[in-house]
UniProtKB/TrEMBL annotation:
This is histidine kinase. Residues 1-29 form the signal peptide. Its EC number is 2.7.13.3. It comes from Paenibacillus favisporus. Pfam families: HATPase_c (PF02518), HisKA (PF00512). One of its GO terms (molecular function) is kinase activity. The chain crosses the membrane at residues 184-204, 211-230, 250-267, 279-299, 305-331, 343-364, 376-395. It comes from the Bacteria. Residues 429-633 form the Histidine kinase domain.
């Protein structure tokens, strides 16, 4: 696998858009349903200096000082040092079986709700988290009474967001529970995936573990961020609010260096090791912030102001620098054709666009907006990281398979070379020792042949023929053992193959075969003319013998990439894959009386001329030999 196709990146972007659309449409559809008789969309607000929410003070119930407000308007701006905002509105007729009130979004740390001067709800937090939703039952006799809501917050935003929904308790309870449940599901899915990946890391090799575990930490910390950002835990398990805020900080301190480390493992250290330097800084800064957080916990939040500055203000700048460096690095690699970088760029772009779009909308709404799309952008970004890791593992696996095949091929070549070296030495020694006695024996037999007549002469002639055949085998052995050429010259391929054709045509005619040669005039190679002809006579002769009855042998040549390529193709019986793999082995032949030495000699001659020989064949279709030599053309 050379890389991820662009279609996969397009699909990733499409999935991201559909995911965001799937999440956005229901949210805005729900926002459009904030009108009607069930909703209180208009109310009045009044600032008070008294921090006490235990009772409605007389100054609040007074008619003066109230300002109108309604759903869709900006949140009230804090005047001076006032920390308490009072909200009042008149309840309509409550005609439900179990009338109840749901406030889906109200900002403040401490909240108290009264009907008249009677308290019906109270919530106090000793940690800074101001996103609340409230569900409380009402009575039918509360109809047309004045509802007072007191809110306190250390943050600038304070007050109602959408309004107050009225209805039957079971229906509102269903909305109350499900509203932020998707955050918990998404966050827990991330944590579960990370946990499974960490368990699987036990079975990975050391060199694979680094990127695998770093991605697991990225996914786990992202899941914790999604969970601890959601109002769900603060609504149903608000007693552990401090734990949630600290888990948020820890997850952020783990996420940033883990992400940088993962990117470094995939793409390297970057220009002048800038990614590596950023990683070292993040590890040190995260460790420092964790230690400072522990000190703040021990001192009972006395260092909270400094901790907030370090973990929010400074860390925000570090995140911006990290985003710029990582995106720049991925874009550089993407421009160079790195498909992993392209995937990362798409994932980061989806995440960045969701965050930027939400921030723009946040400021356009003067802060009257809660960020929620960022977690789905983060989901797309994490998916892109998982795709990158999976792609890298696939590439590594294919490289291992490729190296294994190459190693097997090299081993086979080594074994073949060793085998051929042994055979060469044996052939040379045997040929030298046997040739002279054979020549002497042949001479005596020729003398004796002249003295015999009739049947005895036939026997002597047969003996001479067998001696000649033995001499031919010995000559092949010597050619195989010592393929070096005494005379090397520039050969014209067309002329040499023309001589081959003249020698081999009579045999072809006897077999009923037709030879068609198409050789250009200008092709030239370096070698020994006699050995060149011997090699091609062997190959064309094999093609003729492979034909059954009438057949066709095509020989053509051309020059490509400074090499002369010659093809010899027949439509004979062909060979199986097993037979094709054994071509050139000693004593392997498809012919009844064949020794396999002819093709061995052919391989050695071609190899000695700096060429290569390859056979292609299919049973019942035919065989094609492809010979390639370095071109000697000036």
């Amino acid at each position: 696998m050379k890389g991820f196709p662009k279609s996969v990146i397009t699909k990733l972007a499409l999935i991201a858009c559909l995911t965001l659309l799937f999440v956005t449409v229901p949210v805005f559809a729900g926002a459009m349903q904030t009108g009607g008789e069930r909703w209180i969309t208009e109310w009045e607000v009044k600032w008070a200096d008294s921090p006490d929410l235990a009772a409605v003070p007389g100054s609040v119930t007074a008619s003066e000082g109230w300002s109108p407000n309604q759903s869709g308007m900006a949140l009230p701006k804090r005047p001076g040092t006032s920390s308490t905002l009072w909200i009042r509105t008149k309840l309509p007729a409550l005609n439900w079986d179990i009338p109840s009130m749901l406030i889906p979004k109200i900002y403040g740390q401490n909240i108290a709700i009264f009907i008249g001067t009677t308290p019906i709800y109270e919530s106090n937090r000793d940690y800074i988290y101001d996103n609340n939703k409230v569900l409380t039952p009402l009575q039918r006799n509360d109809s047309d009474k004045i509802l007072y809501i007191g809110v306190q917050s250390a943050k600038d935003r304070i007050g109602l967001r959408h309004g107050i929904e009225l209805g039957n308790y079971p229906e509102l309870l269903d909305n109350y529970v499900k509203r932020d449940l998707i955050d918990i599901i998404l966050g827990c899915a991330f944590v579960f995936i990370a946990l499974v990946m960490l368990i699987c890391s036990v079975f990975l090799k050391k060199e694979q573990n680094a990127s695998w575990i770093s991605l697991s930490l990225v996914i786990a910390s992202a899941g914790v961020l999604v969970i601890t950002y959601s109002p769900f835990l603060y609504t149903f398990y608000k007693d552990y609010g401090k734990l949630y805020t600290r888990l948020w900080d820890v997850a952020l301190f783990v996420l940033l260096p883990s992400l940088t480390y993962f990117i470094e493992r995939i793409f390297g250290s970057g220009y002048r090791s800038v990614i590596q330097k950023l990683l070292y800084f993040q590890i040190g800064y995260s460790a420092f912030c964790l230690l400072f957080m522990l000190a703040n916990i021990v001192l009972n939040d006395k260092l909270f102001g400094i901790h907030y500055f370090l973990s929010v203000r400074v860390l925000g700048i570090v995140m911006i620098v990290q985003a710029v460096l990582l995106v720049s690095n991925s874009i550089i690699h993407a421009v160079k054709g790195n498909r992993s970088a392209e995937i990362l760029t798409v994932g980061f772009a989806v995440f960045g666009l969701t965050v930027i779009g939400e921030m723009v909308w946040f400021y356009l709404k003067d802060g009257n907006y809660d960020l929620f799309l960022w977690k789905w952008g983060a989901a797309v970004f994490i998916i892109s990281l998982m795709l990158i890791l999976g792609r890298n593992y696939t590439i590594n696996h294919e490289q291992i398979v490729k190296y294994s095949r190459e190693l097997e091929m090299f081993n086979n070549e080594l074994q073949r070379s060793e085998k051929m070296a042994i055979i060469s030495e044996l052939a040379a020694s045997v040929a030298h020792e046997v040739r002279n006695p054979l020549q002497v024996t042949r001479g005596f037999l020729q003398v004796l042949t002249k003295k015999y007549r009739n049947q005895d002469k036939i026997y002597m002639t047969m003996a001479l023929e067998e001696l000649d055949r033995a001499a031919g085998i010995i000559t092949d052995f010597l050619t195989f053992a010592k393929p070096q050429f005494e005379r090397i010259s520039v050969l014209n391929v067309k002329e040499e193959l023309g001589h081959v054709e003249g020698v081999i045509v009579p045999l072809a005619n006897l077999q009923g075969a037709q030879i068609d040669m198409r050789i250009p005039d200008h092709l030239q190679v370096k070698g020994n003319s006699s050995k060149f002809k011997q090699a091609f006579i062997n190959m064309v002769k094999n093609s003729i013998e492979a034909l059954s009855g009438d057949g066709q042998i095509n020989v053509w040549a051309y020059e490509m990439d400074e090499r002369v390529v010659i093809h010899i193709q027949d439509n004979g019986e062909g060979m199986s894959k097993e037979e094709l793999a054994r071509l050139g082995e000693p004593y392997f032949s498809n012919k009844t009386k064949g020794t396999g030495l002819g093709l061995m000699v052919t391989f050695r001659i071609v190899e000695a001329m700096g060429g290569s020989l390859e056979f292609k064949s299919e049973k019942g279709v035919g065989t094609e030999a492809v010979v390639s030599f370095p071109s000697a053309a000036v």
